[in-house]
Write a structure and sequence with these properties.
This protein is α/β, with parallel strands linked by helices and 717 residues long. Helices cover 56% and strands 16% of the residues. Helix 6 packs antiparallel against helix 7 (121-143) and helix 13 runs antiparallel to helix 15 (369-396). It is elongated, with a radius of gyration of 51 Å.
């Protein structure tokens, strides 16, 4: 029976709808079985075979209702069909069997009940109206004296009525029984859902607390009792404000069913407070509002966050220490490199001069010329690596600054191309350049733009052999940005390598490092420089076919530079301007090739090798050179000699270069002497702010130094 009923119930029905559909199908089966019995009795007592067949046919029509349920999947359609068929059969049997005295007359009142069970409330109201109309019609006809056909004798009517009553009793009993079963099922489902809900509430790790309108606890779960170290009896009925000092603030924010998470404070009976994360929402229950709280003890999370914060602070402090260390190492590394490169250049020049003059021993010295040139090349290579690492450290520390100036783009491109040309020739590459007609001047950081182009072009030349490297320069249509495009026909990159191309210390693979060398910092620094100059860098590459790097920079950074410029730190200014006692010069300072008509250049540097190198560079060009090993000695000599210019190292013991520069500019008799600061690039703006006239970066290039001296007013040899 159960399998037959389930066959007619659509799969998408579940829960209450499935149970109601099952009840309807079972009722149809009971009515269909009762139809042949009534038809048989009608044939026996009346002898009318046609009527018996019509009753049997009506019973078969009832069986269409389950099929409609299966085909349409809609219980209301099948229910209305069932009630409609019953209505037609019952009204017809009542008409042919004597009207209100017919055994089937009482069945009319059952039709609305069937409709309520099987088709829903709206259908039940409709069929109730139909049943009342039918009942009213029969009573009205009977009251007017209308004579209904009566084919049954009194005793036959008694038998038929007995059969009808028995059938009616069985049907009503079946409907009520099934209805009670449905109600019991609903109760069981409700109890099961309640048990499941209770199990979930008790097993969730978060505390759940229900608070009534007066602020007292109504019910709690096990997790909530664990959070506050209370048993359930002691917890229930407590004022929530006693356990949660911030409860009043929570009540103000928890309005409506929406849950809002916030941090609050919980308090144990012992007085210890702890942090909680609380979500709250209002619950309407029995015409009064209750507040549902979801509590989570976040003490461990807060402790973990504190550890993370401490670790972050320690990491930041370590980063600051690293930056300070690298800043100091910048001076310590560049000073000896300056001596190595400078002396190697001077030795090479001396050997070349001796060879041209056929001086004694010049042939022997020429044997060492290639070695001296190798020393110079290795020194410059080491300097480039050191500069990359120091630049990256400044970028990571956020100390990389911009020095915005007017740049002639064509002149810049010619300068970079002339520098890169030997690299292209080394690998038999053709270097091509295309500059758009609209390209003229931009306002940006010349040093960083030059470094960007040099890094991209040198990489292209390094990773390309017997190919082409092309640089195209253009501006965007609005003229607000300048675009550099570097294309090569080199080894290219795979998609995996493209994902890491701008990461620090990253190259294609270990074989690339062995074959081509380098630290893998060039493109990393380039990408940071692009961002610093208000631009972007992108790359397209195909393995074995080449790469295309596109750089797009802002064409005018003047407004941004003005907005970023800030006065020197007050403590720095005070420290730089603070007067200190002057210590006399220690020992007699040398004067080289003292010519009365030659300008005197005062070199102030605590490094002996640097002093000797600069003195030899300048004296060879015909300058008088005075040397000072400290700031105090430099200040004393400046007052005595009134030199034409001063070269000043910044990092010196006792009185550093910044302090000395401030004192030189404060003294009226010394304020007009040009000062050339020689130190790290990152402090260019500070040097200019304190009054420096020019700025050079170690290691000092002789041509650059002489060029600066040539531009200083009143200096000449």
């Amino acid at each position: 029976m159960a399998k037959s009923v389930d066959y007619f119930i659509p799969p998408h029905l579940d829960g209450f709808e499935r149970r109601r559909a099952s009840l309807a199908v079972k009722t149809v089966f009971v009515l269909a079985m009762w139809g042949p019995i009534v038809g048989l009795l009608s044939w026996i007592f009346v002898g009318d075979a046609a009527r018996a067949l019509m009753i049997l046919g009506a019973a078969l029509l009832l069986l269409v209702s389950p099929m409609l349920l299966r085909w349409t999947g809609k219980p209301a359609v099948a229910g209305n069909y069932l009630v409609g068929t019953l209505f037609g059969v019952v009204v017809w049997l009542t008409w042919v069997n004597g009207g209100i005295v017919a055994p089937s007359f009482s069945w009319i009142s059952l039709l609305p009940i069937f409709a309520l069970l099987f088709a829903g409330k709206r259908s039940a109201l409709f069929w109730m109206g139909a049943a009342l109309c039918a009942l009213g019609a029969f009573f009205g006809l009977h009251a007017t004296g209308f004579e209904f056909v009566q084919q049954l004798s009194p005793w036959q009517q008694i038998v038929m009525r007995f059969a009808e009553v028995c059938g009616l009793t069985i049907v009503i009993f079946g409907v009520v029984y099934l209805k009670d079963g449905l109600q019991q099922w609903l109760v069981d489902v409700a109890q099961r859902n309640q048990q499941e809900t209770r199990a979930i509430i008790e097993t969730v790790p978060d505390g759940l607390v229900t608070v009534d309108g007066s602020g007292r606890v109504v019910q709690v779960n096990e997790a909530a009792t664990d959070i506050f170290a209370l048993d359930r009896e002691a917890f229930t009925g407590r004022a929530m404000a006693d356990l949660m000092p911030t409860y009043d603030r929570l009540q103000e924010t928890a309005q409506g069913p929406a849950i809002a998470a916030d941090e609050h404070v919980g308090e144990l009976d012992c007085g210890r407070q702890f942090p909680m994360e609380v979500a709250a929402g209002e619950l309407e229950s029995n015409s009064h509002a209750e507040l549902v709280l979801i509590l989570r003890d976040i003490s461990r999370r807060k402790a973990a966050e504190e550890k993370v914060r401490q670790a972050r602070d320690e990491a930041l402090e370590a980063s600051r220490a690293k930056s300070a260390f690298l800043a100091n190492m910048s001076h310590e590394l560049r000073t000896p490199l300056n001596a190595v490169i400078g002396y190697s250049e001077m030795i090479a020049e001396e050997i070349e001069f001796a060879r041209q003059e056929d001086a004694p021993g010049s042939g022997f010295g020429s044997l060492f010329l290639p070695d001296v040139q190798r020393i110079r090349t290795a020194g410059k290579h080491l300097l480039a690596l050191v500069n990359d690492i120091l630049d990256l450290s400044k970028i990571e520390a956020g100390k990389m600054q911009r020095h915005v100036e007017r740049i002639d783009v064509a002149e810049l491109v010619d300068d970079v191309v002339s520098t890169v040309q030997p690299l292209a020739d080394k690998n038999d590459n053709t270097l091509q350049v295309g500059v758009g007609e609209s390209v003229d001047h931009v306002h940006s950081d010349l040093t960083k733009v030059r470094q960007i182009l040099f890094n991209l072009l040198s990489n292209a030349c390094k990773f390309t052999s017997n190919g082409q490297v092309r640089l195209d320069v253009r501006t965007t249509s609005d003229g607000e940005r300048i675009v550099f495009r570097v294309e090569d026909t080199g080894i290219g990159m795979t998609p995996e390598q493209l994902d890491e191309v701008f990461e620090a210390f990253s190259q294609a693979d270990s074989s690339t490092t062995r074959q081509f060398g380098g630290t893998g910092l060039g493109l990393t620094i380039t990408s940071h420089f692009c961002a610093l100059l208000g631009g972007t860098i992108s790359v397209e590459s195909t393995e074995g076919e080449g790469s295309v790097f596109t750089v797009e920079l802002s064409a005018d950074l003047r407004d941004e530079a003005r907005s970023e410029t800030s006065p020197l730190d007050t403590q720095d200014m005070v420290g730089a301007q603070e007067m200190v006692g002057i210590v006399g010069a220690t020992g007699e300072l040398p004067y080289l090739n003292a010519q009365t008509d030659a300008d005197t250049i005062l070199v102030i540097d605590d490094d002996r090798a640097m002093r000797n190198l600069l003195s030899r560079m300048l004296s060879k060009e015909g300058y008088n050179v005075a040397l000072a090993a400290s700031g105090a000695e430099g200040l004393l000599l400046a007052e005595q000699l009134q030199p034409a210019a001063i070269t000043l190292d910044v990092m010196m013991p006792s009185m550093d270069g910044w302090e000395l520069l401030a004192r030189l500019k404060e003294e009226p008799s010394l304020a007009d002497i040009p000062v050339i600061v020689i130190t790290m690039l990152s402090e260019r703006s500070r040097g200019f702010a304190l009054g420096a006239d020019h700025y050079l970066v170690k290691p000092v290039d002789r041509a650059e130094l002489l060029g600066v001296l040539g531009k200083v007013d009143g200096v000449g040899v």
